[in-house]
Amino acid sequence: MHDEGTWQWRLDGGVHEVALLLSGEIDVAGVARFAEVLREAIDRAPRVRVDLARLSFLDSTVLSALVAAHRDASEAGKRLTVVNPVGHVRRVLDITGLLAALEQEEDIWPSAG
Amino acid sequence: MPAPSPPDTLLSMTFALAEVTEVRRAVARVAGDAGLSEGDLEDFVLAVHELVTNAVRHGGGAGEVRLTRSANVLTCQVSDRGPGAGDAVVALPGSTVIGQRGLWLARELAGGLVLDSGPDGVRATISVTVRPWPVGA
C-alpha cells in the first residue's frame, strides 16, 4: 500500500480492469492527491473499481472527486464504480444520492479480465 | 428556578488546511466524552468537519472551532473571516454535480444549521442533544 498519511491506496489488476483499494480517512487535506490517484487508475484500464471496504472516512470534497472521476471515465469511454462502502462512508454516499449513481451493478457483458 | 449556568467550553481551536484532520480527531474525542457514540458521533464529527472544510475553502483559508455544552445540548460554532457566504443556497445537488454538498451534509447530519454571514465572515452553528450530566457531577 502507498501511504499518504491519513490514508493508503493500492492499484491491483491489469489492462482490462483495475481495483483501487483504499483504507484510512480521506479529507480535504488529502483530496488533491486522491484525485491524482483516481486519474492514474482511469489511465491504467477501461474499468476501475474503487474499493471502499477499508475506508473509514470521506467528506464532501472526496465525494466531488469521485463524481468528477466518474464523469471523466465516462467521457473517455471508460467506467468507474465504487464498491463495498461500509458504515458511515456508506451512509454519506446514500443520503447524498451518490450510492446509486456511483455503485452500479455488474456489467451486462462479461468482464474480459 | 435557578438561573441557567453558562455553557462550558469543551474545545477551542484555530485551524487552517493542515490542521483539519487534527481538529476532526479532537472534536471526535470531546464529543465522545460528552456522550455521543457510534452513528450519532460519526454524524456530528462529519457535520463539524464540513463546516471546518467550508471555512478552509471558502472562508479565507482558516477559522476557529468552538465546542460548548449547556445542560444536554452540545453546540459547535465554526467561524471564519472570509468574504461571507453571500446568498449561498444550502441544497442537495444532483448526482452529477461536482461540489456544493458540504453545508447540506452539515445541516442534514446535525439536524439543522444556523449560518450567520456578514462582510467579516461566516459563523456556522450546529447543535445536538447529548445525555444529561450525571446527577451530582
What key attributes describe this structure?
heterodimer; A: 113 residues; alpha/beta; 5-stranded mixed beta sheet; 4 helices; 5 strands; 30% strand; globular; disordered C terminus; B: 137 residues; alpha+beta; 5-stranded antiparallel beta sheet; 28% strand
Description:
The complex is a heterodimer of chains A (113) and B (137). With 113 residues, chain A is α/β, with parallel strands linked by helices. In chain A, 39% of the residues lie in helices and 30% in strands. Chain A has helices at residues 31-44, 60-75, 87-95, 98-102, and strands at residues 2-3, 7-13, 17-25, 47-57, 79-83. In chain A, strands 1-2-3-4-5 form a five-stranded mixed beta sheet. In chain A, helix 1 packs parallel to helix 2 (60-75). Chain A is globular and about 30 Å long. Chain B is built from three helices and five strands. The two termini of chain B are 19 Å apart. A five-stranded antiparallel beta sheet of chain B has the order 1-2-3-5-4, with helices on one face. The chains are: A alpha/beta (113), B alpha+beta (137). The interface between A and B is medium-sized, with 25 and 26 residues.
List the helices and strands and how they pair.
The complex is a heterodimer of chains A (113) and B (137).
Chain A: E1 2-3, E2 7-13, E3 17-25, H1 31-44, E4 47-57, H2 60-75, E5 79-83, H3 87-95, H4 98-102
Parallel strand pairs in A: 3-4, 4-5
Antiparallel strand pairs in A: 1-2, 2-3
Helix pairs in contact in A: 1-2
Chain B: E1 8-16, H1 20-33, H2 38-58, E2 62-70, E3 73-79, H3 102-110, E4 114-118, E5 121-129
Helix pairs in contact in B: 1-2, 2-3
